[in-house]
Amino acid sequence: MKKIILSMLILCTGLWLFTGCGKKETPSEAETPSTMEEASSEETETEVETESGEVPTLVVANWKGYGADEDFGAPRFEELYNCKVEFVYFNSVEELYTMLQTGGIGNIDVALPSTVYTQTFRESGMLEPIDTSKVPCYGDLIEAYLNLPEATGENGEVYALPWTWGTTSLGYNPEAVTEEVTTWDVLYGDAYKGKVAFFDDYVTALMTSAIHTGQNPSDPDHLDLQAVKEDLLALKENVCTYWASYDDYLNPYTSGEVVIGNMWAGTATQLKNSGTPCNYIYPVEGTVGYVDMWCIIKDTDCYDLACKWLDFMCGEEFQYNFATVEGNAHNTVNNKVYEKLTDEQKAAVWALETPSKVYMQPVLTPEQQNDWLEVWNEVKAN
Amino acid sequence: MKTKTKKNSFKIGSLWAGPSALMLLCLSLIPLAMLLLFSFMDGNITNGVFPGWTIENFQKMFSSNVFSKLMAKSLGIGALVTVICILISYPMAWGMAKAAKPHNRSMLMMLIILPFFTSQLLLIYAMMMILQSGGILMTLLGALGITTDGTSILYTPKAVILVLVYEYLPYMVLCLYTSLESIGDNLVQASRVLGAGTFRTFINVVFPMSIPGLLSGILLVMVPVTGSFAESALVGGPNGMMVGSLINSQYNTVLNMGYGASLSCVFLIILSIIMAVVRMLVNLAERRIGGETE
């Protein structure tokens, strides 16, 4: 009898263990699926709904709180096209890449990598070419951001549409920094020793240093990494903290521990809107820029709806709201919208004065990525 | 007949161990074997294509001084935090186990484990608010004339140590409390009666009997502290990088799974050796102090 009870117990424990291991929770809409398996379980449910006559669902991969999930974003799109938008959030483009590699292709319909990763995605065969005839706003987009080599295929196919652009330039507190700031040199002197914040991103860090040492950061094949390393080590003497997020910057800046450093234009906007004095300038040597682009992911089963999403995201209505939303405005890529903006609205996103030299993040080979990261790690470990 | 019963109980015992052995296999041994295999992988698996084998990951690690510098720094921080935790935890745990009234013990225990109810990141941010310029601590120190206005220890190695001690102290206290509570009061009393002072009683009676708890505490504090990276990244300033950040950057920044795995493997081996040495030294000390001979 004892043996029977014991065997039953072991059997139950084993079953519990296996069912526990295999069980996938379906995240709620507000939750971020941590793996693609979770995201795919959402999608499976959606497909069942679609077959039973429900509205179609578009799965969008994006950063959380980055425009598309605002009230004037996905909810408005759902209203216009009688569909449902589901978000899959990522915290870095590398995470998006891994997500797509581990089951995202065929489940995610559209995604938002930055320029530098668009080529990697395209070359890895993760993207569908965009039929621009299905994107009526295509002709309204600012030409400088169209046909970027990263987003263009060998036969001229368009693989990504620009959505917004920005810079990681020089920001400072005018109450603490009273001199006129025009160059990156200001970070290197003794005047602000221990009061500098610098972006903890190896690509931006090396690019900024390359600009300061008079090199072209968009040409990674001819970059003198030793000179860049020495420059970054000299800068480290003055650095108070390396920042990686908005909060990392806002806290020391508002408490006065940091008064100057490279920052995202969005950080400067947030600081200014919160009543903290902040100036954001484009140094004469040049500045680092990026373009965020929408792509259609390979094997999507709602290609036309994905094209409509791209048209909506880059179209006049969304772009105007995105460029003028209070406290969190972004640069527009739509000509019609740019013309509509007042000087005050342009100044709010630091676009009244355009930078004379913007260096876009270059496409790095895996070897170059490792070399650049090694330099950055050596600087931080020194 | 007796042999048969023994055999049966052995079989039943093995069956009981089955589920936990399976869990150990799935969650510990297989991942470790995968880590070891991946450490010889040349880069990352892309589009399901295996990149091939290499020993370059290890060559790169030992030829660059980044890993050795960060490993030494992380071990130093790990050891320092562990020592500070031990020094603070002994009197705390003794007070809870022996001095506090039994009905107050549960409340004290609750206070010790209270920080576990919130996320680790929130604890770090809470400490940042206290340590930052204009925060409670720096304002208080400024008012007492110890520091000048606008200064703070945030973004320095001191802040990293402080935050790590704050986070990991409960583990050490709980481990030592369990050991100290089991020491009979009559043993301590006997030591006193035989003429030993407080210090000698601690060294010859209390310390040897608390070794199991101390070893668990060292394991629970030193290992995660050495591998931590969030604390140093957030409050450590420009010199805040630890070996955990280096490993993290290989996975999260450049997707170099092979190099990340090789760094993790060597880190794991070094830490295992150090823990084995610590265990050996503490056991040796126990035998010497306790008067036992090998």
Count of discrete domains of chain A:
2
Number of separate structural domains of chain B: 1
Kindly report the oligomeric state of this protein: heterodimer
Mean pLDDT of chain B: 88
What is the helix content of chain B? over 70%
Number of strands of chain B: 0
Range of strand content of chain B: under 5%
Helix and strand string of chain A, N-terminal first? HHEHEHEHEEEHHEHEHEEHHHHEH
**What is Rg of chain B?**
24 Å
CATH superfamily of chain B: MetI-like
Mean pLDDT over all positions of chain A = 84
Number of helical runs of chain B? 13
Q: Strand portion of chain A, in percent? A: 15-25%
Number of E-state strands of chain A: 11
Largest sheet of chain A: 11 strands, mixed
Proportion of helical residues of chain A: 40-55%
Structural class of chain B: mainly alpha
The most extensive interface between chains reads: A-B, 40 and 42 residues
Task: Walk me through the structure.
- The complex is a heterodimer of chains A (382) and B (294).
- Chain A is of the alpha/beta class and 382 residues long.
- Chain A folds into two domains: 25-159 and 290-348, D-Maltodextrin-Binding Protein, domain 2, CATH 3.40.190.10; 166-286 and 355-381, Periplasmic binding protein-like II (D-Maltodextrin-Binding Protein, domain 2), CATH 3.40.190.
- Helix content of chain A is 41%, strand content 15%.
- Chain A is built from 14 helices and eleven strands.
- In chain A, strands 1, 2, 3, 4, 5, 6, 7, 8, 9, 10 and 11 form an eleven-stranded mixed β-sheet that branches.
- In chain A, α2 (36-51) packs across α4 (93-104) and α7 (225-236) runs parallel beside α14 (366-381).
- Residues 12-50 of chain A have low confidence and may be disordered.
- With 294 residues, chain B is mainly α.
- Chain B has a single domain (60-289), classed as MetI-like fold (Orthogonal Bundle).
- Chain B is 76% helix and 0% strand.
- Chain B has 13 helices and no strands.
- Chain B has helices at 2-38, 56-63, 65-99, 102-113, 120-131, 136-143, 157-181, 185-193, 198-209, 211-227, 230-235, 243-252, 257-289.
- In chain B, α3 (65-99) packs across α7 (157-181).
- Chain A binds chain B through residues 3, 6-7, 10, 13-14, 17, 21, 92, 94-95, 97-98, 101, 124-125, 200, 202, 236, 239-242, 244, 248, 251-252, 255-257, 366, 369-370, 373-374, 377-378, 380-382, and chain B through 12, 15-16, 18-19, 22-23, 26, 43, 45-47, 64, 66, 69-70, 73, 128, 132-135, 150, 152, 154-155, 233-234, 237-238, 240-241, 245-246, 249-250, 252-256, 259.
